[in-house]
Amino acid sequence: SAVAMSSTCPGLYCGRMMVNGSAEGECGVCPRGERTNLQKICERCTESPELYDWLYLGFMAMLPLVLHWFFIEWYSGKKSSSALLQHVTAMLECSVSAVITLLVTEPVGTLGIRSCRVQMLSDWYTMLYNPSPDYVNTLHCTQEAVYPLYTIILIYYAFCLVMMMLLRPLLVKKIACGLGKSDRFKSIYAALYFFPILTVLQAVGGGLLCESRLLTACSQCACTGTDACPSLSFRLCISLHHLGLVIGHAGCLHVCL
């Protein structure tokens, strides 16, 4: 074909495989974990994520935890002891999920990851840049040019959901006996709603979030009224439950930074 015989591949993300030191085959999508270089050759990604990439991963990883804490607090009422244990369990779920996600991501078995350097916003949305060399047939070169920033979050969310379904129902059934049968599992039901929303957010807006460098610090939202700062600070210090939330938020942010 004309595309196969041309010196370079069309489009931004189409490339050829390197075999025995020479580019061979037709132009097409690069394998996962590779992306095209300036010569339109599929090249293995061997770089480490930049600081902004780690900040983005940390921010997206904290979202489920913060939402877990919010809905646990919202539906637990004044059951501070049971709510606190659920907060700890939610942190354990997310922490274990994060470790497992890193271990199954290349290089497998280590807590480090190798990545393709993000060069432009279009790297996140390669499905929108499939070229049509003859204006009739489309050459499909959709790939994860930002490997693994796009899929690693989705894998993490999947592990979080599995860990929650394995641990939380048994815990809630044991410790939340004071709540009604319809209320004790509401924080779990809420997670079944916000996980699909987070997945869509990552799939559609992940590139916009990462490239805009919009990282928000998690802070404890006081739901007990509009107190003045001194009064609110005093009540926070004497409440182990609220103080634990603040320390947890600060710890998560410190890990990301």
From TrEMBL:
Positions of transmembrane segments: 54-72, 84-104, 147-167, 188-209
InterPro entries reported in the protein's UniProt record: JAMP (IPR008485)
Entry keyword annotation includes Transmembrane: yes
UniProt GO cellular component terms: membrane
One Pfam family of this chain: JAMP
Keywords: Membrane, Transmembrane, Transmembrane helix
Any single biological process term in GO: response to unfolded protein
Keyword Disulfide bond: no
GO MF term set: ubiquitin protein ligase binding
Signal peptide: none
Descriptive protein name: Jnk1/mapk8 associated membrane protein
